[in-house]
């Protein structure tokens, strides 16, 4: 598959009479956006707020972050199986409003939502502080169940990103980059002397409020399979989970997966990037055995020399990570695992819930238990009344002056296993 990604640089976002892009500024008709979100009968109200890089703004509780995109050429549409029909995506051309994002907010599962600070020390830990954010603070109908609330917020964010992304359809991009992966035998034959490398992409699927969607299907219902990397870039994988803020993969992470982009940068030069194996992180042992067996089988079937494995979440998924690593290594395929750590505030605790001698090449996103103090902000988008209960917070985390003392895991994307916190959120 060959995908052209056209980057349209967004340097500012403002409200206006019409939703459009002009000279790098994204203008939004606020009422049109509100009306779109309010089409869902489960939503009582929505506030639309803007947050720009460097402003003294705190956004919380954050549910998801989504980059606006639009298909310009080729089959399918963005977010297939959810917003658009279930067509295979990953080819043609897609335009990206780079530097803009839709941020959905709501106290769905208060202890597992996150914080984005647009300035200050917290901003250094999240890539989303560098974006022009359109924030949707969504209030559900009274007594709506949590999973129904999550579904309503998820759909609102995707609909908003699709609506905004369409403004880029007829805009000439600032930059166009081409990504291509050929059918397997052709791909292998093209670079016969380079090591064949694959990416094992572990998706959070631990059940209600801990789900990820592939072409609209709850990924806990699938067995491991192979995707072209460009399918991921075109919206085939969407976030639907409420795991701890620091290490969840938002939809933005999936669309801009830096491991995939880095592998493409090395493709044809140092490695032959063969493709992506997606697998899940279920809770029952039989499911873990099945998925890790299939994942290891695929690495051998594809003839890989090496594989990078990333996980999502921590604790229970650490078992899936190590099972995948061990079984892939036993197939004779070298592995590198990418993870965050929960090593205690002093860094002296066991950092992963599982381990194996074969996991001897590790890239770490850092220790999520480290303490940080977030200074007060002039403006809060959302609400702060849950901060003491958020994962990483504690009794007294929210101080009387509005500052927050907590573990860095409260920050959305802070120690993300994709290594995203180490990379710029804009550009390629």
Give the terminus-to-terminus CA distance.
19 Å
| Mean pLDDT, all residues | 92
How many structural units, i.e. domains?
A: 1
Q: Major sheet: size, sense and barrel closure?
A: 6 strands, mixed
The share of residues in extended strands comes to: 25-35%
Radius of gyration: 21 Å
- Helical element count? 8
**Proportion of residues in helical segments:** 10-25%
Given as residue ranges, the uncertain stretches (5+ residues, pLDDT < 50) are 422-428
Got a strand count?
24
Name the structural class: alpha/beta
Task: Choose one word for the global shape.
Answer: globular
GO molecular function: oxidoreductase activity, acting on X-H and Y-H to form an X-Y bond, with a disulfide as acceptor
Pfam family, one: Gly_reductase
Keywords: Oxidoreductase, Pyruvate, Schiff base
Protein name: Glycine reductase
